[in-house]
Design goal:
Length: 301
Amino acid sequence: MSESTGFIEFSYQGECHLTWYKLIGTISPTSSRPLVVLHGGPGLSHTYLSPHARLHEQLGIPIIFYDQLGCGGRSTHLADKSPSFWTIDLFLAELDNVLAHFGIADDFDLLGHAWGGVLAVEYAMSRSPGRLKHLVIADTPASMKLWKEALQMLLQGLLMETGATWRKEEEDATASGDCREILRQFYQRHVCRLEPWPPSLTESVNAMEKDSTVRRSLLGPSQFAIDGGLKTWSAIDRLHSISCPLLVLNGRHDTVQDECVQPFADKVKKVDWVRFEESSHTPFFEEEEKYYSVVEGFLRQ
């Protein structure tokens, strides 16, 4: 399995930045249609999604990973930028730039996890139809309102079960021991149910914690309030414009509950929805074989 890495120059608002990428396989006029993988967070690195490289072995397709601007250890970080800089338009422009660099904008597949799914959905709704051939979104809500409601419901369920209390103002790096324990239990139930967490997931989370600029700008300081730049985001009224086949994935224990993804099933013409019964927010770890079997089957269509 060949692998290459490098940097792509990305100009935005008169400034030049660098996007780090990793390509599994090769891209040529005779190669199969490539898959571009978009990591979540916002603010994680691509590392936790690296196991998706197995799709290259299963399908013989090139796979492109990249660390979005402000994320990971190699792409340009801009911790001094104001929250207004970090927008969906910025990250769509970066995705356009990656596609142009590899010359694949007219024929490719796209897989996005969580926030990466938001970007993928926005791309599918806003770009010329026919270029994107398959869209996979894993653990992605159709609106921030629906996701916030699900987060609050799951948090209240945990608090009722444990008898603990929650104070939003403590939810930061100086949080009390009680608050940290609630977060730990919440993540263990609704983010990744494996114990311990896979090293690649821990590595990506640690990278985000070193520079949380992107996450705080888009989601805000709270794990549950969602009062950053994405707070009013919704795709619901535009989902009918997605013309390519769509695969929607979530877990029974996911922060992205069924109500969060129901609009995709209701409004997209060509859609498959698979829920993983033993998974939360990371079915590619929690039900690995089933997850990749489902994704592989969809991409073969």
